[in-house]
Q: What sequence folds into this?
């Protein structure tokens, strides 16, 4: 079989009338997906006299409908044509493979099953933007309700659904916010690869995720998600039909992340350029690889918890029903064995992006590359040993509270190494204060607050008071949004010229940054105050004594919303009307800045050979 590089060198002209592949796109996927869903729904319709059996049957119908929608969409967009053709001994021709890679198709390729990693990266980028916009809009609704005590902006039941939907939407978006767009578009070029190791699986990871988005949105029309994003059993077993959307979303998303994680790992291990030894791999690649390597074993536990919840709802199995030998603690363990490593799955790629940015804008080598790698590895290793600190107050084995407190506090050691690497790189430097570099300073401040406040929550006596309060909400937003999302936004402004060929509007970037960061401090410092005073989280109303802190927090939320609207305008406007970007506007040394825009289909005309590390600023050329 010829490689894509060999096919491109011959460059046959794709014939749109020659293959079924050329007739499939997002539109056909929607048609087939809806057809599969409707056929499943109506073929399974029955009404039973017994209320329990009717509840069971309705859950079976809804879950089957949601999964068949996902499968039907993938059939309709052509995701299974390649494997099917291989099975019947008629593998795709060179012409068809070029067509799948989007060769010469312009903007249409973004609405097709396209195997070009750069197209997949842009698809992920706009998918993340859409999810953050929806999740952020729900956050604005939540803060509007909490602006003053006794507010009637929304009902308590709608508020509960908002909290759950906002949480899971933002968590899904944050898991892919860095590895989705940049792990697909930038990372293969960074290591000198022509493409991802498995291009078809790469496209599959995005479109599988895409099918989960309408499923999650359907929860609005099915009574919402009243459980919060953690969906604790047995409440989730007893919840209304909207819970089926949550279950299906998590299972579909887990499949997507497994496919994407395996592909990124295989690409980095097997497709690095000649001469790119492990001590010459850019730090973003290291961070992203450790992140997905952590996700691959962690996320299946949440998937298993959702499968068991689905079985309890559809077959009355009793995994989480104590009356028949089940246990709610089982769910809690399965959830948090995923839930705490997931924090670092989100955090590591964003931090790695910032560590990629610092040497470029300070013009110094990265301070102790080895310490950075050790820090990432230490965080990943310890993150799987801390999950039960979320269960201090549950009453589960109090004798283990001490060991889990120790492992939780120990994770500050590798985190401190990351801080030292960034500070060491900044030391005695003269930073170039462009928008990407501002994100580094914001990260240091936000992560410092997030880390220190996390130490209090790791301590059993302090957690006894703060658990379940607004303090906890403020803490994890400082780490996830203040650190990880800050890193992803910095990465967007840094790699925007390479992904679009244009410079991001600099003035809008500055305005957005300051609106978001100032609003962020106002919002969550206000929530720290409310939590320290005793205000519980997940409530739609509260006592008058918390009014001032909530009023302050809501003002900060509106500033954040304004800042992100400015950023969205900048991204859209600059894409079409921005200043044409030079090939390497920042003077960086990593390989992605050595290729022109638009990036060629196979990235490099000649496979690169690496002879030095990517952070050799100030070093004499030998």
A:
């Amino acid at each position: 079989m010829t490689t894509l590089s060999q096919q491109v060198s011959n460059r046959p002209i794709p014939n749109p009338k020659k293959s079924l592949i050329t007739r499939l796109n997002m539109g056909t996927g929607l048609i087939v997906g809806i057809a599969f869903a409707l056929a499943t729904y109506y073929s399974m319709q029955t009404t039973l006299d017994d209320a329990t059996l009717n509840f069971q049957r309705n859950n079976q119908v809804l879950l089957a409908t949601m999964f068949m929608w996902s499968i039907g969409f993938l059939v309709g967009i052509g995701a299974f044509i390649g494997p099917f053709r291989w099975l019947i001994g008629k593998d795709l021709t060179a012409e068809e493979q070029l067509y799948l890679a989007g060769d010469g198709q312009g903007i249409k390729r973004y609405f097709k099953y396209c195997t070009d990693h750069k197209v997949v990266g842009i698809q992920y980028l706009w998918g993340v933007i859409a999810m953050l916009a929806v999740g952020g809009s729900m956050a604005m609704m939540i803060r509007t309700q909490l602006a003053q005590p006794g507010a009637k902006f929304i009902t308590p039941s709608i508020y509960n659904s908002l909290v759950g939907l906002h949480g899971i939407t933002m968590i899904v978006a944050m898991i892919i916010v860095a590895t989705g767009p940049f792990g697909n578009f930038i990372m293969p070029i960074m290591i000198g690869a022509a493409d991802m190791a498995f291009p078809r699986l790469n496209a599959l990871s995005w479109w599988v995720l895409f099918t989960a988005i309408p499923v999650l949105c359907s929860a609005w029309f099915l009574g919402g998600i009243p459980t919060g994003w953690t969906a604790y059993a047995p409440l989730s077993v007893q919840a209304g039909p909207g819970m089926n959307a949550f279950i299906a979303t998590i299972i579909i998303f887990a499949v997507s992340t497994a496919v994407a994680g395996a592909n990124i790992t295989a690409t980095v291990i097997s497709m690095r350029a000649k001469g790119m030894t492990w001590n010459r791999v850019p730090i973003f690649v290291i961070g992203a690889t450790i992140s997905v390597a952590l996700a691959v074993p962690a996320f299946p536990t949440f998937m298993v918890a959702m499968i068991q919840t689905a079985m309890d709802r559809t077959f009355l199995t009793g995994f989480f029903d104590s009356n028949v030998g089940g246990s709610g603690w089982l769910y809690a363990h399965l959830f948090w064995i995923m839930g705490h490593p997931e924090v670092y799955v989100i955090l590591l790629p964003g931090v790695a992006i910032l560590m990629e940015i610092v040497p470029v804008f300070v013009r110094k080598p990265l301070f102790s590359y080895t310490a950075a790698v050790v820090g990432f590895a230490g965080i990943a290793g310890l993150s799987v040993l801390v999950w039960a600190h979320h269960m201090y107050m549950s009453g589960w084995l109090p004798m283990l509270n001490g060991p889990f407190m120790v492992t939780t506090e120990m994770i500050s050691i590798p985190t401190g190494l990351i801080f030292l690497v960034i500070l060491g790189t900044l030391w005695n430097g003269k930073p170039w204060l462009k928008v990407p570099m501002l994100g580094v300073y914001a990260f240091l401040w936000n992560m410092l607050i997030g880390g220190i406040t996390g130490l209090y929550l790791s301590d059993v006596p302090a957690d006894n008071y703060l658990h379940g309060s607004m303090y906890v909400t403020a803490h994890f937003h400082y780490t996830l949004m203040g650190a990880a999302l800050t890193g992803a936004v910095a990465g967007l402004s840094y790699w925007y010229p390479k992904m679009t060929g244009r410079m991001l509007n600099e003035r809008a970037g500055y305005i957005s940054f300051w609106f978001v960061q100032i609003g962020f401090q106002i919002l969550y410092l206000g929530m720290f105050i409310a939590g320290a005073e005793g205000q519980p989280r997940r409530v739609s109303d509260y006592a008058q004594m918390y009014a001032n802190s909530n009023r302050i927090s809501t003002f900060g939320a509106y500033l954040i919303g304004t800042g992100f609207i400015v950023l969205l305008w900048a991204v859209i406007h600059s894409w079409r009307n921005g200043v044409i970007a030079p090939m390497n506007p920042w003077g960086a040394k990593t390989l992605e800045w050595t290729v022109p825009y638009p990036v060629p289909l196979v990235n490099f005309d000649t496979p690169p050979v690496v002879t030095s590390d990517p952070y050799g600023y100030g070093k004499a050329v030998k």
Q: What stands out?
A: Residues 336 and 387 are 5 Å apart (CA to CA).
